[in-house]
Design brief:
Length: 310
């Protein structure tokens, strides 16, 4: 009887443990499934990784997630603190390398936490592949075929977003027009003109920050959207671009210079008002003789050699 009692006692103790383990695995599976479904609901990069990071942080306290690929570099900081360990994982979908995710943790991971990370990470793969495919198609649709700069399709969403935060941070916009470019097209033909446009697009892109947007606005006009940039700093950017053109053998040969206008974004301005203001400033610079930058209602003229003033 004693043995039988002990056996029954052991059965009663073990059943809740097995049931608890089963329920825990089922809850993990349901949470992971829910994660995959939620990740499929957004094609915004920031929102996508914020959802993923938030979910993971409820399972394992995490400091940061960093995803890097050929076309995307995105970092999500969840909380501050000293780094205890990093875990880098290459992400594959059907043998296609999507990129690398680096997880940064505040504490060393236990064996159980490593298993949890592996399970959660597995549900990232296919939503991430869909996101990257969408981003790739969006990039193709938003690029100018001649210069490979952004085209006008990104102006409305980018400016709208920055205008909303303009009361907290300084953002600026610059409109750039090429002086004397029309004469090149008329005399040398569009083939030479296209080559010059490509060279200038490349030079402008090299003189702005990685988070700035250089847009071919149309013809020989370019729009620069510059987040987190004070208005006074736009003149330094303009001077560098102007000097690069003066030092370029092909561009300087035709006496091409820049006329530009800049404005600081304000929370009470619409996108249309911003574009009108920056366009007005640019035309003031152009009609004043070119090779000028109008910003904050001030006329700033770059000192160019006499043979560059036409």
């Amino acid at each position: 009887m004693l043995s039988k009692t002990n056996f029954k006692s052991s059965v009663k103790c073990s059943m809740p443990q097995k049931l608890s383990s089963h329920l825990s695995r089922r809850e993990d599976w349901q949470r992971s499934r829910s994660l995959a479904e939620r990740l499929q609901t957004t094609l915004d990069v920031g929102e996508f990784f914020a959802l993923y990071a938030s979910h993971l942080n409820t399972r394992i306290p995490i400091k940061q997630i960093h995803f890097e690929s050929e076309s995307l570099n995105h970092r999500v900081l969840i909380q501050d603190g000293p780094t205890a360990t990093e875990h880098a994982v290459l992400v594959y979908a059907d043998e296609q390398l999507l990129g690398q995710v680096t997880y940064t943790f505040l504490q060393p991971l236990s064996f159980l936490q490593k298993l949890r990370l592996k399970k959660v990470h597995a549900h990232l793969v296919f939503p991430l592949r869909n996101l990257l495919a969408f981003q790739h198609m969006s990039q193709l649709a938003s690029r100018d075929p001649l210069t490979q700069l952004y085209n006008r399709t990104i102006i409305e969403p980018r400016l709208t977003k920055l205008i909303k935060s303009a009361h907290q941070q300084q953002h600026t916009v610059m409109m750039v027009d090429l002086d004397n470019f029309k004469h090149v097209n008329d005399r040398e033909g569009h083939e030479v003109g296209d080559e010059i446009l490509q060279e200038i697009a490349s030079l402008i892109s090299e003189e702005v920050d990685p988070d700035h947007f250089v847009i071919r606005f149309g013809g020989d006009e370019f729009l620069l959207i510059m987040p987190h940039t004070e208005l006074r700093l736009t003149h330094d950017i303009f001077k560098r671009m102007q000097q690069r053109l003066c030092n370029h053998s092909l561009i300087s040969k035709y006496g091409i210079t820049l006329s530009a206008g800049s404005v600081r974004l304000q929370p009470y301005l619409s996108v249309e008002q911003v574009l009108n203001q920056v366009d007005d400033n640019m035309y003031i610079a152009k009609h004043a003789g070119g090779a000028r930058h109008i910003f904050d209602s001030l006329d700033a003229q770059v000192n160019l050699p006499n043979d560059q003033r036409l």
